[in-house]
Design a protein that fits this description.
The protein has a domain of about 90 residues. About 15% of the residues are buried. It has eight helices and no strands. The protein is globular and about 60 Å long.
Length: about 190
Amino acid sequence: MQRTISIISSNDVTNPPPTDYFPHIDGLRTFAVLSVFLFHLDIPYVAGGFLGVDVFFVISGFLITRILKQEAEVSRLDAVNFYARRVRRLFPALFVVMGFCLLAGIFRYSPERLIELANSGVSAILSVSNFYFYFNNDYFDAAAETQIFLHTWSLAVEEQFYLVWPLIIFLIVKYLSKSWQMRLLIGLCLVGS
């Protein structure tokens, strides 16, 4: 008789593996990264490279909606675990980038600019940099190129989406029948197009 032992770490329980892997999404991500990267290098014929950000938003929306819908259908939507996974996925890289940027700012900026840098850094940590830069700068203005944390606006939008979307999905799945869910989806697609 042969015995098998299964070892499941606590990390496996709190971070379940994705139920499906979509390799074509990696291709879309690559396209999006390259288009944004080339756009910021001012390469000719890549004038619409900023649309890569929209591609990222669509990919995130699709994947997060899929996960949330699966969890909501079995009534096990764990908001604390959901948000903890998002923080563990996004914030370490953000903090590393912010640390290097702040360090560079100390050596390059005047005291006035350091205060501005600190304010924009706080807005990035609080996931409101999209509002901060909207009210304080013009993204396409030449002065915006000196804003080290300007790129965090898209991360803030994504985090704000993560804040609201789980509740919406849970309510839709809990209170609408499948046919009404489909009607709502079609209606939103029509309004969005």
